[in-house]
Design goal:
Distance between the termini: 46 Å
Strand content: under 5%
Helix content: over 70%
Radius of gyration: 21 Å
Structural class: mainly alpha
Number of domains: 1
Length: 429
């Protein structure tokens, strides 16, 4: 049977279908891991694991000074221009060294303080101190990953994601098998090292074709260009993880640590299926939007992406909702408090996906001011709405806030992008 041409040549569908295979395998493995985690460490353990994941998210941003999306954008634009790439990677090297040193030193000497601040206890100080030595690998992994994405190497990306995930999870399972929470935290922390090794094995030869190690220097030709992405990453990654940490603490303080575990578990499920879209954003959306200059072409590309991924994503989310009680019974025994959270989280994630497709125009065109303002509004909305709704709806208020936040964000994004194209046409750009 011959596959229709529009399917064969649809790069969005190719990336999406390959991603779907990877994510399906990830979800199955993740389901087992979450069951093991829930069975051995309970709600408290899941809440603590959620907190360490937030910390790792923050470190991923600040250790490389948030240049991931900048590397994706400029590698996509200059992949045929090796001298320009050398300038880019030379500047990236400086950013990695500076970011790693500062964040590593601060975390090492402030480990006990951060342990008390986040976990309300001194007992995790040495865990954070060990993580401080892993920071350079986190930064290097994030930056090399940007090259994979910028080259739109979606087949290699899928191999790297799947292999590194399986290896990382194997280490994590060994840690939690003996109900050792601190070991599980460290297993999460070394995941970037495992991914970096996998990238070198799978993608090392390709990287060498684009990165001339002998030509790297401590040049800062791309300093201003990458600093813009540093600011955007600080807003979207660091502050988001900081606010999520505060929300876990808020739920724990206002209601109970068990309820904090329920929200963390639902959030973890959400993050697992949202990975389905994140690969598409960096492998396709940012490189594609970077080369689109008219409103009409932008609209056509957005609708093409919507037509390809929204039906698939919507069907997957519907299945998650219909099977929510089965998921809870199998993966999270005794976590019945999760059930009311699903519908709001799923609706919020669907609206979020629609908004994020368009919002990646900010990253593709380096629209720093627009990105920063809309992200800050979004984050403030999430925290303020959570504080308000939690008083009326308990933990369910967090996921209701999630939905309302993204509805408002989506409307704002459409308006800002529309104004951006209008201003460009008036200037004759």
């Amino acid at each position: 049977m011959k596959i229709p041409k529009f399917i064969r040549e649809n790069i969005v569908l190719k990336i999406t279908s390959l991603n779907a295979v990877v994510i399906t395998i990830r979800l199955v493995i993740s389901g087992f891991v979450q069951w093991l985690l829930a069975s051995t460490l309970g709600e408290v353990g899941i809440a603590r694991i959620g907190q360490i994941r937030n910390i790792m998210g923050m470190l991923t941003s600040i250790s490389s000074l948030g240049i991931f999306n900048g590397i994706v954008k400029y590698v996509a634009e200059h992949k045929g221009n090796k001298p320009e790439l050398n300038k880019l990677f030379s500047t990236a090297t400086v950013f990695i060294i500076v970011g790693s040193l500062i964040s590593g030193i601060v975390l090492f000497f402030g480990a006990d303080f951060f342990s008390r601040l986040i976990f309300k206890s001194d007992e995790f100080g040495y865990v954070l101190r060990i993580i401080s030595f892993i920071i350079p690998f986190i930064a290097l992994n994030r930056s090399v990953n940007g090259i994979v994405n910028g080259l739109s190497e979606y087949k290699n990306y899928a191999k790297i994601e799947l292999l590194s995930y399986v290896l990382s999870i194997s280490v994590f399972v060994l840690a939690i098998y003996n109900a050792n929470l601190k070991a599980a935290m460290l297993a999460i922390a070394i995941a970037p090292i495992i991914q970096l090794i996998v990238i070198i094995v799978v993608f090392g030869k390709v990287v060498k074709r684009y990165v001339s190690y002998k030509s790297l220097s401590f040049g800062l030709d791309y300093k201003n260009s990458l600093l813009a992405f540093t600011l955007m990453s600080f807003i979207s990654t660091f502050l988001l993880n900081y606010i999520e940490l505060n929300i876990i603490g808020l739920v724990e303080h206002k209601i109970s640590v068990n309820e904090a575990g329920y929200w963390t578990a639902v959030s973890f499920i959400s993050k697992n299926y949202m990975v389905f879209a994140s690969g598409l954003f960096t492998l396709y959306v940012i490189p594609r939007f970077a080369n689109i200059h008219t409103k009409e072409a932008f609209k056509q590309e957005v609708f093409k992406i919507y037509k390809t991924i929204l039906p698939i994503f919507g069907l997957g989310m519907l299945l998650v909702y219909l099977l929510r009680n089965v998921i809870i019974d199998i993966i999270y025994p005794d976590f019945k408090g999760m059930e009311p959270l699903f519908k709001w989280q799923l609706w919020g994630d669907f609206v979020r996906l629609c908004a994020l497709v368009i919002a990646h125009q900010f990253l593709a065109k380096k629209m720093v001011k627009s990105f920063v303002i809309t992200e800050i509004i979004s984050l403030i909305l999430f925290y303020v709405l959570t504080v308000v709704f939690i008083s009326y709806f308990n933990t369910e208020g967090v996921v209701i806030a999630h939905l309302v936040r993204y509805i408002i964000y989506f409307v704002i994004i459409i308006f800002v992008i529309g104004m951006g194209f209008k201003n460009s046409s008036e200037k004759g750009i």
